[in-house]
Amino acid sequence: MKIWVDADACPSVIKEILYRAAERKQLTLTLVANQLLRTPPSKYIRSLKVAQGFDVADNEIVRLCEAGDLVITADIPLAAEIIAKGGLVLTPRGERLSNDNIGERLNIRDFMDTMRSSGAATGGPPPLHQRDRMAFANALDRVLADR
Question: What is the pTM of this model?
Fold first, then answer.
């Protein structure tokens, strides 16, 4: 199993949890972003800079991800593509996305996109709280224990 991170929007505190997990479990962790990211010195952790552009990082993650790999993302269309390839998906809030819930999440995302394009103010995601960090760490531990 390799871990791929949609790193442009991933909170730093979640990256820190991932760094520790990669070292502890000796797993390859790759942060994919359209900017250069600093990572701690480790033979397990690296960053991959991709070109600027819409969905460039997402497309690279889909291209490189293999069945059984874990992807950390809040991007629902990216999550759907990873699940279709047999990958595992966790959001930075610790929600496990799977065949059981991705269809519903895509519908909600499309509905909210329609609302925003019609001028409705929908707001952004709520701030990441300590309970979200704990939920992520616990969900990550469960995924890594099952591998």
Answer: 0.89
